[in-house]
Design goal:
globular, TIM Barrel, binds ligand PBG, 8-stranded parallel barrel, alpha/beta
Length: 322
């Protein structure tokens, strides 16, 4: 035999020398759920280990993560039902829960990186990411609302704006609004290839943001398609996105690879709520070794080509490396 690949696997030291992919805490972004109130923690039942936190507790959570070397956070607000309306007006209330919390975090931890979510669903009485009229999701009318929302977030101190709505032209609309108002340094991480996925279920429980009618298939992508992801990526890059994201991650590793191979921008992948919940559920039953499965999943997402992973496992991963 000329080649015996097993020689490169014969000891831990050699295996680690030839290891092609590594996951480090630097690669990770932790999503956090924000609720109204003081000293409030409410568990998300379908996401063991993850809670919705009031801003004071969220601040403490940020602090404890930063001590572990985890510095980037993507914050999602859970909005009181009585503040929701058709136009998602609360999303551009400068004194609302979300911008005030961003301000609070940046004041206490200027070196924390705060990514925001731009989409109407947490604020919308229709539970959709865009403006609804006669059962249809309007595209261009939604862009103005998204741009206003992004501006409020930038004014509050957001470092990275994350449009997760999948309206056409939103990256350009947000970029223009940011630039016209002097926020030239605020980045955009676009949810470029966001699929109409069943894996978002636990997240919608967490925010009570499920659509009140129909589904999101007229704006989120069909899970059967990959070429369409290249069109979306082309548009996002030309409209000024700084990062491209694929979401969900695990069932879409081929999409991650396609974007990595075809675009020079950093690629992010969102290891979503349903992917997290499955691992936690099987782990709790003792059916899988949860920690090894977690690490293997994160590794596979990086190996596919992601530079950055948004994951609910970020904190426990960071803890495991200390
Ligand atoms: C909403 C949004 C969703 C997620 C992030 N932003 C849900 C959806 O599109 O319905 C899902 C994240 C997750 O499942 O972890 N704009």
């Amino acid at each position: 035999m000329q080649h015996r690949p097993r020689r490169n696997r014969k000891s831990a030291a050699i295996r680690s020398m030839v290891q092609e992919t590594w996951v480090t805490t630097n690669d990770l972004i932790l999503p956090l759920f924000l609720i109204e109130g003081k000293n409030k923690r409410s568990e998300v039942k379908s996401m063991p280990g993850i809670s919705r936190l009031s801003s004071d507790l969220l601040l403490k959570e940020v602090e404890s993560c930063m001590k572990l070397g985890l510095n980037t956070f993507c914050i999602f607000p859970s909005i009181d039902n009585k503040l929701k309306d058709k136009k998602a007006s609360e999303s551009f209330n400068k004194n609302g829960l979300y911008p005030s919390t961003i301000k609070l975090i940046k004041k206490n931890f200027p070196e924390a990186v705060i990514m925001t979510d731009v989409a109407m669903d947490p604020y919308s009485s229709d539970g959709h990411d865009g403006l609804v009229k006669d059962g249809k999701i309007l595209n261009d009318e939604t862009l103005d609302i998204l741009a206003k929302m992004a501006l409020v977030q930038a004014e509050a101190g957001a470092d990275i704006i994350g449009p997760s709505d999948m309206m056409d032209g939103r990256v350009g609309a947000i970029r223009d609004a940011l630039d016209e108002n002097g926020f030239i340094d605020v980045s955009i991480m676009s949810y470029t290839a966001k699929y109409a996925s069943a894996f978002y279920g636990p997240f919608r429980d967490a925010l009570d943001s499920a659509p009140k009618f129909g589904d999101k298939k007229t704006y989120q992508m069909n899970p059967a398609n990959v070429k369409e992801a290249l069109i979306e990526a082309e548009l996002d890059m030309s409209e000024g996105a700084d990062f491209l994201m694929v979401k969900p991650a695990l069932s879409y590793l081929d999409v991650i690879k396609q974007l990595k191979d075809n675009f020079p921008l950093p690629i992010a992948a969102y290891n979503v709520s349903g992917e997290y919940a499955m691992v936690k559920a099987a782990g709790a039953k003792g059916w899988i070794d949860e920690k090894r499965v977690r690490d293997e999943i994160l590794l596979s997402i990086k190996r596919a080509g992601a530079d950055i992973i948004l994951t609910y496992f970020a904190k426990e991963f960071a803890q495991s490396k200390k």
